Amino acid sequence: MVVLMRSSETKQNVFQCQQLQVVLGKAVSFPQQSAYNLSLSTYWSQNAQNVTPSCIVSPRNTRDVSKAIQVLSQYQAAGNSIIAGCRFAIRGGGHTPWAGSANIDDGVTIDMTSIKSVKLNLAKSIVSIGAGARWSAVYEVLDAVEVGVAGGRLADVGVGGLITGGGMSFFAPRYGFVCDQVVNYEIVLANGTAVNANSRCNADLWFALKGGSNNFGVVTRFDLKSFPLGKIWGGSIYNPIDTLPAQIQAFVGLNNASNFDTNAAVINTYAYSSRSRSWTAANILVYTKPEINPPVLRPFMDIKPQLASTMRLANLSDVTSEQVKFTPYGLRQLFLTRTYGNDPVFLSQVFQIANTTLQSFANATGLGYSLVYQPLPSVITSHGAANSSTPNALGLDPAAGPQVLAFQTIQWANAADDALINEAARKIWVQADELAVKTGLQRQWIYLNYANEDQDPIGSYGSANVAKLQAASKKYDPTGLFQNNVPGGFKLFKKGAANPN
Predict the structure, then answer these.
(1) What does the alpha-carbon distance between residue 353 and residue 359 come to, in Å, rounded to a whole number?
(2) Has residue 82 got a pLDDT over 50?
(3) Residue 11 has pLDDT above 70, yes or no
(4) What is the mean pLDDT of the segment spanning 273-281?
(5) What does the CA dihedral 134, 155, 454, 73 come to, rounded to 10 degrees?
(6) Whose CB among 181, 381, 489, 500 lies 3.0–4.6 Å from 396's, allowing a Cys bridge?
(7) For residue 224, which of 321, 84, 118, 330 has the smallest C-alpha distance?
(8) C-alpha torsion sign, points 86, 92, 96, 99
(9) What is the 8-class DSSP label of residue 279?
(10) Cis link prior to 305 (omega < 30° from 0)?
(11) 261 and 233 in contact (C-beta within 8 Å)?
C-alpha cells in the first residue's frame, strides 16, 4: 500500500506508520479507510474526534502491543535523529474529553478497543479484563453469574483510563477507588516487554499504576477482585432547583456521617439546559444491597416535589446504563474539577457563582451544564491511604475528614463557543477557590479522570508520591519514551524539562 503524506505530516510519522504496517498488517489503518474513520467516530467528544493521527494501530492482543511499542521505541532508544520525534497516543474507551488526551495529530494512535475480553476465574474471585473493554461489557458478563466488581458508574466509559486514573465506583465506600481492587496489571513496557505488576512482582510499578495514568507503559489487562452481587437499589430522582437547600443539607449530612453506611453512593448534580433555560436538581442514588428505600438515602428521597424518579431494584448493567442517554457522542465537551471541604453554606455559594457566571454563555447552542458534588468521606480515602496495607498513589489523607469532589461538566455544539465557555468555566473555579481559601475549605487533590489538560492532578498527589512515580518511570522507562513521545495525559515531570530519564 502507498501511504500518501498530508502537508502537515513529517517523514518520521509516515515512516513509522509504514514500519508498523509491515509488522502488524491490517491492524494498522490510515486516513479515509473505514477502520480509521470508525475509530475516530467512537471517541466521546467532538474535541477528540477532530484529531487526525497519521495512522491508527488496533492491536488484537498483548503480542501486537509489544510489536507496536518495539517499532515506536527502537529509534527513540537509539537516538536516531531522522525519526526520533514521532509521537504516539494510547486510547482506551476514548471518554476523556480534551483533544490530545488519548489521540494525536500527525502521530500514531494505539487504539486498544479490540482487547476487550472479560474472564472470571473458577472461584469467581478475580475478573480479568482487557484494557480496551467498556464497563457495559464487564457488567453484562458478571451480572449473568451474580458477581460484581468495582468499576465505572457510566456503562460506556472505558476500563483502562478509569482504572489508571484511580477510578470512582458505586462501591467506593466498601472497597475504595477502583485501582485499590486491582491485584495485577499486565503492562507492555517501553522496550516492548510484557510484564506483570502486583504485590509480589514489580510492586513499585503496581503502586505507580494506581493513579499514575499512561506514564509507565501500555496496560493490556487488569485483574480485579470480584464479589457476589445480585440486585441493587438504584436510579435517579429529579427535583426543582428551589429544593437546593434541602439537597445540600442531605448531601453534607451523608458525607459527615460518623458511621458512614458503606453501601450508599450519591452523585448530587445541578444541571442547566439551554433548551428549557432552567436548572434541575438531580441525584443518582445507589444502595449496593437489594434493600428498598434504605434509611441512609431517605433524606434525598423525601425531598419534594419530585419531577421524576427511576429508583428500583436492578442489576449493575441496568443502573449504569441509565445515564448514557444524557451523555451523547459528538458534542464539544469540557471537564474541570476541584476538591473542597464539606460545608453547606460554601456549596450553596458555589452554585450561585456557577449560576451567575453561566449567564455569559447560556445561549450557546446545545448547551448542557452540570455542577456535580460527590462525597469523599474518610471511609473511601482510607482504603488506599499511605498507612494502609495496599496504598495507592493518589495521596488522599483520611485524617482530612470528609471532602467534596466538585466537578463541572459542560457540553455544547459549536467550536465557535469554545473560548467563551472555557474562560467562564475557569472563572467559576477561580471565584470558588477564592471563597474556599477565605473559609479554610480549599483542598489540594485533583481527580485525574475529571481534570482538564491545564490542571496538574499528579502534582496534587503530594511530593512523596510524585517522587515514587518518577522513580518508577526512570526504572521501567529509562529512555523516557512515555514521558517524551506520549504527550497526551498528565506527565510526571514539568513541561519543558530536559529528557527526564
Answers:
(1) 10
(2) no
(3) no
(4) 94
(5) 0
(6) 381
(7) 118
(8) positive
(9) E
(10) yes
(11) no
Contact indicator for 469, 457 with CB cutoff of 8 Å: no
> DSSP secondary-structure letter at 292?
S
C-alpha cell at 61: 492482543
According to DSSP, residue 429 is labeled H
Confidence of residue 12 (pLDDT cuts 50, 70, 90): confident
Assess whether pLDDT exceeds 50 at residue 339: yes
Q: Give the list of residues 6+ apart from residue 271 with CB closer than 8 angstroms, or none.
A: 279, 280, 281, 282, 368, 369, 370
Element (H, E) at 38: helix 34-41
Residue with cell 464487564: 138
Place of cell 464539544: 332
Query: In the numeric block, which cell numbers belong to residue 286?
Result: 445507589
Q: For residues 226 and 150, what is the distance between their CA atoms, to the nearest angstrom?
A: 8
What are the phi and psi torsion angles at 356 (to 5°)?
-70, -45
pTM over 0.85: yes
Residue 85: the pLDDT is 57
What is the torsion angle, in degrees rounded to the nearest 10, for the CA atoms of residue 45, residue 46, residue 49 and residue 50? -150
Q: Which of 60, 82, 98, 65 lies closest to 15, judged by CA?
A: 82
Identify residue 261 by its one-letter amino acid code: D
Confidence band of 387 (pLDDT split at 50, 70, 90): confident
The torsion angles phi and psi of 85, rounded to 5 degrees, stand at: -90, 0
Cβ atoms of 57 and 109 within 8 Å: the answer is yes
> How many Cβ atoms are within 10 Å of 430's Cβ, its own excluded?
12
Which pLDDT belongs to residue 417? 98
**CA–CA dist 20, 55 (Å, integer):** 9
Phi, psi of 404 (to 5 degrees): -120, 120
357 pLDDT band, cuts 50/70/90, is: very high
Query: Could you please report the per-residue DSSP string of 74-133?
Result: HHHHHT-TTTTT--EEEESS----STTSS--TTSEEEEGGG---EEE-TTSSEEEEETT-
Q: Are 267 and 251 in contact (CB under 8 A)?
A: no
Give yes or no for residue 1 having a pLDDT over 50.
Answer: no
- Considering only CA atoms, which of 153, 414, 166 is closest in space to residue 288? 153
Mean per-residue pLDDT, 114-131: 98
Phi, psi of 380 (to 5 degrees): -80, -50
